[in-house]
Design a protein that fits this description.
The protein is an alpha/beta fold. The protein contains 12 helices and 18 strands. Strands 7, 8, 9, 10, 11, 12, 14, 15, 16 and 18 form a 10-stranded mixed β-sheet that branches. A 6-stranded parallel β-sheet has the order 3-2-1-4-5-6, sandwiched between helices. The chain has a two-stranded antiparallel ribbon with strand order 13-17. The termini are far apart. Bound molecules: NADP nicotinamide-adenine-dinucleotide phosphate.
Length: 432
């Protein structure tokens, strides 16, 4: 029999226990496909006494993840702890330094330290795999790194956070307020008790930065992602977008503009004719546009025990087969930093929503500020009284420079007519 691939698992929560279940259930088939068995040689987590719903008695236990890197009978360390730094990063560095391959589901760590880890892995001829870090069970990393590697990718974008997409689609279906839907999502386990990373766009930005690096061959630049989340979206925005033929989705969007890297996570108005408008609930979807392949769309479950474990074990099968290859689509040593594009120069239509005092002259004040900033209004969608007696005023601009839209809002910032900061969303178009 060919020697098994011996793995050590650090972290035995949702993903870690899922990996053990999958290997136990599909082990014989995996052995056939990988050409050799994958065996668990060691495990580690914080609390040895915790009931994890699986029998761990067959697996040697280590109290500290770092100890896994010292075991001679471990070929590959699998990190399912989480966090950009701390224990997970220490484990990644130690594993690679000890000559062990490394598999992770940790988007935060790859987004912040992916370049360093990739260079170390490639220099040591070791595998570093992270399929589960972006869009859970969807094989999008493999799709871009391998399947689409002959293409110049023009832009990559998508719905990268299931929690936000679930909240937006529930608001759309029932017309409920953001806070109420968030509470429901927390009650059924679709949102964390501290939902900030998901609803403020940070989780999507981690994934977007990784997709950009894969797609464009430029150094990973998480700090260059402009981030805005969905906290300020009202049910009325969703209704008004619908009246225009759009649905609101939190999108990660990346492209190279005149040699500069543009990366943004923002709620967008997506035309109903676009496939992303029909991605509902906790589903994720990634679109990549290649210069020869055309539009590719990857869709599926972005999280959960089964889908995430499926992606982790697929990485292990690759390693067992001996596929090393580059970490991103381009060797890390050749991925140069890229200048960041100025988003203000982008031209497109924007949706702007104001909450204003219910008195004459307010609309004239707003339209004058827009005219002075060279922004013309395509449609004033609707005005609607809020329960507090204010008026909700939504409009869509003609194609305008984003910096001019912001300039018009800055001019209004001290106006006594505005009762809340305006909300701006972009309309997805082919130019985005
Ligand atoms: N859950 C998903 O659907 C999903 C999807 C895609 C990617 N991911 C990523 O997968 C990773 C794991 O997520 P998860 O949902 O499985 O997390 P989780 O359920 O919270 O499990 C985390 C595990 O890490 C262990 N751990 C935490 N700190 C540790 C430390 N200092 N030393 C040793 N062990 C430690 C915990 O030990 P104890 O159990 O003893 O406390 C627990 O077993 C994260 O990077 C996450 O972003 C998750």
């Amino acid at each position: 029999m060919t020697a098994p691939l011996r793995i050590a698992l650090a972290g035995l929560g949702t993903v870690g226990t899922g990996v053990i279940r999958l290997i136990e259930e599909n082990g014989a088939m995996i052995e056939q496909r990988a050409g050799r068995p994958i065996v668990v040689s060691a495990v580690s987590a914080r609390d040895r006494t915790r009931d994890r719903g699986i029998d761990l008695s067959a697996y040697p236990w280590f109290d500290t993840p770092a100890a896994l890197t010292e075991q001679a009978d471990v070929d590959c360390v699998v990190e399912m702890i989480g966090g950009a730094d701390g224990t997970a990063l220490e484990l990644a560095r130690k594993s690679l330094a000890a000559g062990k391959s490394f598999v992770t589901a940790n988007k935060a760590m790859i987004a912040h330290h992916g370049m360093e880890l990739a260079k170390t892995a490639e220099a040591g001829n070791l595998s570093l795999r992270y399929e589960a870090a972006v869009a859970g069970g969807i094989p999008v990393i493999k799709g871009l790194r391998d399947g689409a590697s002959a293409n110049r990718i023009e832009r990559v974008y998508g719905i990268l956070n299931g929690t936000s997409n679930y909240i937006l689609t529930e608001m759309e279906k029932h017309g409920h307020a953001f806070d109420d839907v968030l509470k429901e999502a927390q009650a059924i386990g679709y949102a964390e008790a501290d939902p900030g990373f998901d609803i403020d766009g940070v989780d999507a930005a981690h994934k977007l930065a990784i997709l950009s690096a894969l797609s464009f061959g430029k150094a990973l630049d998480f700090e260059g992602v402009e981030i805005d989340g969905i906290r300020n979206i009202m049910a009325a925005d969703i209704g008004q977008a619908k009246a225009l033929g759009y649905r609101i989705r939190l999108l990660g969007m990346a492209r190279i503009d005149d040699g500069k890297l543009f990366q943004r996570v923002n709620p967008y108005l997506v035309p109903e004719s676009h496939p992303l408008a029909h991605i509902d609930g906790a589903t994720n979807a990634v679109v990549a546009e290649g210069n020869f392949s055309g539009r590719l769309m990857f869709q599926g479950a972005g999280a959960g025990e089964g889908p995430t474990a499926s992606a982790v074990v697929a990485d292990l099968i690759d390693i067992a087969r001996g596929d090393a290859g580059t970490v991103f689509a381009t060797p890390a040593s050749q991925m140069e930093p890229c200048e960041r594009a100025e988003s203000g120069n982008r031209v497109g239509k924007s949706y702007v929503r104001f909450i204003v005092a219910d008195r004459p002259g307010v609309l004239a004040e707003i339209t004058a500020a827009m005219r002075d900033a060279d922004v013309s209004i395509e449609s004033l969608i609707q005005t609607e009284k809020t329960s507090e007696g204010s008026v909700l005023l939504s409009m869509v601009t003609h194609d305008s420079r984003e910096c001019n839209v912001l300039k018009s809002l800055a001019a209004l910032s001290s106006s006594a007519s505005l009762q809340a900061a305006p909300v701006v969303m972009h309309l997805l178009s082919d130019q985005d």
